[in-house]
Amino acid sequence: MEPTTITSTRLKQITDNFKKGLESSIGIYLFKGLRIQVSKYKASGSERFARLYHKRRENGLCVICGAKVKEKNPRTKKLYRLCSDHRDKIDRKS
User: Fold this and answer.
1) What is the DSSP letter of 90?
2) How confident is the model at residue 94 (pLDDT cuts 50, 70, 90)?
3) pTM check: above 0.70
4) Residue ranges of the domains in the chain?
5) Rounded to whole angstroms, what are the CA distances from 93 to 28, 30, 90?
6) Which residues contact 28 (CB under 8 A, 6 or more apart)?
7) pLDDT tens digits along 37-88
């Protein structure tokens, strides 16, 4: 994933969240040419994958490839969790 460019005020917010122990501070940031990575030490693979899954769902991206999901479920009115390609391959198996 690409780092997010942040300003000094955003960096202060991230450090405040970090001090409080909030998971919203986790991420990769770019501040004045410096790459800052905030992550959990010795996080299991399933923990990292769950965080990536939830982040992609919140942003309306396919949980597998990260492509933008354009179609909504007509019943729930929410975006599908998979792009049309992966829905064809996974959800609609023959």
Assistant:
1) I
2) low
3) no
4) 4-38, 45-91
5) 36, 42, 6
6) 1, 2, 3, 4, 35, 36, 37, 38
7) 888 888 788 888 888 888 888 889 998 888 999 999 899 998 998 988 888 8
